């Protein structure tokens, strides 16, 4: 069976009937049918003409899908410029989750040509981060935290694919996108560079110096409830934040030395970058406790729980290549 031979003729008949009866109102609902022969992504384009018919009401999902398709066609033909939306100035899991909802149709269809330029980091395994751009991941608000899913193409991830989440989030629009695999979110690229020219991510541990004064090792993140369009990233402290605003950023010397992704759980529940950073920057730590955290930050990502194992890595001269 094919859409063109077995379905399209009926759609054409329907559209002609609609045109012949302009005084009647027609509703095209979006209905799920388990075991269907045709996919929604193949059916929607057939009804594109209905978008311009005033007596046809389609579901919001179909309307948005047709708008996306038309935008892509217009861009390909050169009728409109490839305007890339500016990303928010500062981002955390909540901001990214809302952006994923806003661009859900582009993410589901794999169209990344006019989405915000955002890069995030995630944990693949011990000593191994992955990096993906917006459109290659989506973040879901699970009611008590945020779950990150990355589209993976390698068949070794087939058993980790979460089809239930895909169907709930996208409906039937992700065929060919790969496997949606839950990963540990490990920060977003802030586009702030350290003294070595390395891009700083949220969750990075930074050696902060203000002129000749050394402020110590602190983890960077987005403060809760900050204005994503006009706010600034910050180093969370006990009951306040040291803001990395434009003024002090000019005089500070920042050098990345690690991340807060140590002592991880392979199947851990969502834990925000804010929580990790606040814990790392704990002002009540003794000098010995803080030094231990700084050491562990060098060997990330890491799932070892015992602190002496990190000391052993240092004595062996091990190197974790987390800088990207």
Description:
A hairpin with a 5-residue loop joins strand 7 and strand 8 (199-201). The protein is an alpha+beta fold. The protein starts with a helix and ends in a 9-residue tail after the last helix. The radius of gyration is 24 Å and the shape is elongated. It contains eleven helices and 13 strands. 30% of the residues lie in helices and 24% in strands. Strands 3, 4, 5, 6, 7 and 8 form a six-stranded antiparallel β-sheet that branches. A three-stranded antiparallel β-sheet has the order 10-9-13. The mean pLDDT is 86.
Order of helices and strands: HHEHEHHHEEEEHEEEEEEHEHHH
| Count of alpha and pi helical runs | 11
- Globally, the shape reads elongated
Cα distance spanning the termini: 48 Å
How helical, in percent, are the residues? 25-40%
What's the helix and strand layout?
Layout (H helix, E strand, L loop, with lengths): L2 H4 L1 H13 L5 E3 L11 H4 L12 E3 L1 H17 L16 H10 L1 H6 L9 E7 L2 E6 L3 E5 L4 E7 L10 H8 L8 E15 L5 E3 L2 E7 L2 E7 L14 E3 L4 E3 L2 H6 E8 L13 H8 L6 H12 L8 H9 L9
Parallel strand pairs: 1-2
Antiparallel strand pairs: 3-4, 3-7, 5-6, 6-7, 7-8, 9-10, 9-13, 11-12
How would you briefly describe this protein structure?
This protein is an alpha+beta fold and 324 residues long. It has 11 helices and 13 strands.
Any key phrases for this structure?
alpha+beta; 324 residues; 13 strands; elongated; 6-stranded antiparallel beta sheet; 30% helix; 24% strand
């Amino acid at each position: 069976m094919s859409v063109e031979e077995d379905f399209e003729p009926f759609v054409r008949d329907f559209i002609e009937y609609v045109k012949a009866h302009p005084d009647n109102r027609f509703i095209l609902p979006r209905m799920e049918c388990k075991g269907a022969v045709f996919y929604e992504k193949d059916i929607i384009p057939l009804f594109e003409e209905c978008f311009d018919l005033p007596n046809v009401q389609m579901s919001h999902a179909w309307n948005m899908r047709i708008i996306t398709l038309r935008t892509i066609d217009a861009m390909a033909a050169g009728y409109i410029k490839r305007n890339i939306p500016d990303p928010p100035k500062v981002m955390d899991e909540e901001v990214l989750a809302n952006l994923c909802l806003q661009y859900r149709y582009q993410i589901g269809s794999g169209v990344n040509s006019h989405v915000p330029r955002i890069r995030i980091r995630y944990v693949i395994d011990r000593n191994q981060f992955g990096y993906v751009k917006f459109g290659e991941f989506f973040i879901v608000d699970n009611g008590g935290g945020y779950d990150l899913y990355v589209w993976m193409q390698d068949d070794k991830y087939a058993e980790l694919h979460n089809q239930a989440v895909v169907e709930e989030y996208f409906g039937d629009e992700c065929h060919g996108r790969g496997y949606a695999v839950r990963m540990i979110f490990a920060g977003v690229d802030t586009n702030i560079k350290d003294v070595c020219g390395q891009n700083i991510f949220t969750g990075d541990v930074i050696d902060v110096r203000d002129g000749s004064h050394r402020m110590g090792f602190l983890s960077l993140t987005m403060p809760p409830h900050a204005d994503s369009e006009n706010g600034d990233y910050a180093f969370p402290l006990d009951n306040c934040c040291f803001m990395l605003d434009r003024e002090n950023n000019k005089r500070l010397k920042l050098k990345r030395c690690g991340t807060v992704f140590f002592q991880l759980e392979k199947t851990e529940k969502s834990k925000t970058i804010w929580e990790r950073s606040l814990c790392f920057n704990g002002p009540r730590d003794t000098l010995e406790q803080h030094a231990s955290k700084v050491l562990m930050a060098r060997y990330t990502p890491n799932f070892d729980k015992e602190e002496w194992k990190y000391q052993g890595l240092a004595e062996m001269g091990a190197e974790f290549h987390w800088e990207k």
